[in-house]
Design brief:
mainly alpha, Cytochrome Bc1 Complex, Chain D, domain 2, two-stranded antiparallel sheet, 2 strands
Length: 91
């Protein structure tokens, strides 16, 4: 179930961190990185946000910054909640 407060907070975090400069989400944003409205699981998405330089995310070829030290666990949870709300809306 989508919590509207968590969704709104997650969207603010996404916008404050400039994710839309590279990623498309909800039909808007940049196009140099993957679309953000079709990820499989909370765990996978959280792992990508925290440490995108992992081998499973193309390692050093991935230009996305790591957010593990930049965002709190709650902020990452809110961001994941927002992104999952986009996935649920598009399916």
């Amino acid at each position: 179930e989508i919590d509207p407060v968590l969704k709104e907070t997650g969207e603010m975090i996404l916008e404050e961190n400039g994710c839309y400069n590279c990623h498309i989400y909800d039909g808007r944003g940049g196009d140099t990185a993957p679309v953000l409205d079709n990820f499989a699981s909370d765990k996978w998405l959280r792992s990508l946000i925290e440490d995108p330089g992992q081998k499973k995310f193309f390692g050093k070829l991935n230009d996305m910054p790591a957010y593990k030290e930049k965002l709190s666990k709650q902020e990452i949870d809110n961001l994941v909640h927002f992104l999952q709300s986009l996935r649920k809306k598009s399916h």
